User: Which sequence fits this backbone?
């Protein structure tokens, strides 16, 4: 493997969970990349104040309403949907719960990258609390994701909670609670610690690994590792996520660890 | 024992007819017609009427209150999540804290207090009345509702060929729950396309209902569960906070429009 040289990593704050400490994530990435420049940027839409309506319409048009049906962007989103997206863009609300098509969302984010930063050495990572999913042709349904990686990457704090599956018993009990009219959030105490929850204090530590997945995508073209103890492991279960990001004895597997030291840090120093 | 006044049957009947006719004639034109007397419709009506607006709530059932009498699975304890306990405080409904951010009250107590508060504020009701269609005027603006008696619509058409009547208002609010009947009438005319409602995601659905409560078409505001159907939002669990707060937002939006 030969690494691409990274000029700059840019982390955008597109309305993340309040407990996420983005400066701490940035500092971590800086340390891993041999003092490569890591810049924090706030709301990416703020760069284009005269195009807010346009972007609001685009975001309103890429919502998934049925996870078993592949969406096509809506030509005429409702007025109320556009107004909601405007409030999200301008930071008037941070509420979430809408499910977006991840690839279309990534495409909208990529439009926000300034022209002079569209070269290969730049890593643009959009941190958001929007939940997104990608279509899987094998089982013909959408699956929610923590991240979509590419020329620009999007990583979702909501995805960290919702995408990797919680313990099986949680879902069985949740179903029973809902049938009985009991509030399912009561289960969060019962399963406390066994999955990442909203406003979880472990969110920042977990996010460091996912940001590194986006960085690795730029470096070598693939974000994931098959080693379950490596931070690049693509966790499908919460317990796998917790192990890879918090409990494993090592941060990165030997191969990726050596790669960071030999190829990336030496290159960037 | 104190004796009842010597009033005959005909006086009782005249009183009913006269009072009903007077109110009905008065409310043929109002500031706001709300379709649906569930928690969101009642809250919207209560808050609008409090500011002096003339509000008529149309309800297809004889009883007012919609699903607010019962919490879920026929059990009459209703729950709200923070911050909606503020409304229970306003209404004077006793409640208890179940867990952090979750509160429970007696359904009959909460529902009757809300109905009483709406009545005290000046809301008038047309119960046993079904919404049949919208009145649309210049530019497709919603300007009223076409209504009929519920029993008429419940009987076979061959024996009940009874035309409906129309009532007018500056604003109409759709508070018909999952059916979103008013919005669906617009959809039948190709003026809007609803999204249906999504999978249940209780934790987030309430926030989104509040966020999307508002004018969906000129002259038409959507509130409560009708918001979910209109925008395809996640389905909600058996909890009522969003209904109450959505009604509050609907009233605020209506007031802005009414000036």
Assistant:
């Amino acid at each position: 493997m030969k690494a691409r040289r990274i000029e700059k990593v840019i982390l955008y704050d597109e309305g993340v969970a309040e407990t996420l400490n983005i400066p701490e994530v940035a500092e971590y990435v800086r340390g891993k990349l041999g003092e490569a420049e890591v810049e924090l940027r706030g709301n990416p839409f703020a760069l284009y104040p005269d195009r807010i309506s346009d972007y609001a319409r685009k975001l309103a048009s890429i919502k998934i309403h049925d996870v078993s049906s592949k969406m096509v962007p809506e030509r005429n989103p409702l007025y109320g949907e556009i107004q909601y997206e405007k409030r999200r863009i301008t930071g008037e609300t941070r509420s979430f719960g809408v499910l977006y098509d991840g690839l279309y969302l990534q495409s909208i984010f990529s439009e926000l990258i300034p022209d002079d930063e569209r070269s290969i050495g730049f890593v643009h990572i959009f941190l958001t609390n929007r939940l997104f999913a990608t279509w899987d042709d094998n089982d013909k349904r959408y699956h929610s994701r923590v991240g979509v990686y590419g020329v620009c990457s999007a990583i979702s704090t909501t995805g960290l909670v919702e995408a990797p599956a919680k313990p099986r018993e949680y879902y069985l009990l949740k179903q029973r609670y809902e049938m009985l009219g009991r509030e399912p959030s009561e289960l969060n105490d019962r399963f406390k610690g066994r999955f990442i929850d909203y406003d979880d204090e472990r969110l920042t530590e977990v996010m460091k690994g996912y940001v590194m997945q986006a960085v690795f995508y730029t470096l070598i073209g693939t974000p994931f590792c098959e080693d379950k103890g490596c931070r690049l492991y693509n966790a499908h279960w919460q317990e796998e996520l917790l192990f890879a990001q918090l409990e494993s004895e090592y941060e990165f597997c030997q191969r990726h660890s050596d790669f960071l030291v030999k190829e990336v840090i030496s290159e960037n120093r | 024992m104190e004796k009842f006044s010597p009033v005959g049957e005909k006086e009782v009947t005249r009183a009913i007819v006269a009072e009903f006719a007077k109110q009905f004639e008065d409310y043929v034109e109002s500031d706001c017609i709300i379709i649906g007397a569930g928690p969101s419709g009642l809250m919207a009506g209560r808050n609008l009427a409090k500011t002096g607006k003339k509000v008529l709530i149309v309800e297809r059932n004889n009883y007012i209150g919609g699903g607010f009498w019962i919490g879920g699975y026929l059990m009459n304890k209703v729950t709200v999540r923070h911050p909606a306990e503020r409304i229970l405080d306003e209404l004077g409904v006793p409640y208890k804290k179940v867990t952090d951010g979750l509160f429970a009250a007696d359904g009959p107590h909460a529902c009757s207090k809300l109905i009483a508060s709406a009545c005290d504020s000046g809301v008038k009701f047309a119960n046993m009345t079904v919404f049949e269609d919208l009145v649309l005027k210049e530019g497709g603006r919603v300007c009223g509702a076409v209504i009929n008696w519920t029993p008429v619509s419940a009987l076979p058409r061959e024996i009940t060929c009874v035309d409906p009547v129309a009532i007018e208002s500056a604003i109409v609010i759709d508070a018909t729950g999952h059916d979103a009947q008013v919005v669906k009438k617009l959809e039948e005319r190709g003026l809007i396309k609803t999204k249906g409602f999504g999978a249940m995601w209780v934790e987030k659905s309430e926030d989104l209902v509040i966020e999307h409560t508002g004018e969906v078409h000129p002259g038409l505001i959507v509130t409560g569960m009708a918001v979910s159907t209109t925008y395809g939002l996640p389905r909600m669990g058996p909890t009522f906070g969003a209904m109450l707060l959505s009604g509050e937002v609907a009233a605020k939006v209506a007031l802005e429009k009414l000036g």
In short: The mean pLDDT of chain A is 91. Chain A touches chain B at residues 63, 65-67, 76, 78-81, 83-84, 87, 93, 95-99, 178-181, 183-186, 189, 198 (CB under 8 Å). DSSP finds ten helices and eight strands in chain A. The beta strands of chain A are 8-14, 37-41, 99-101, 122-128, 131-136, 141-145, 147-148, 152-156.
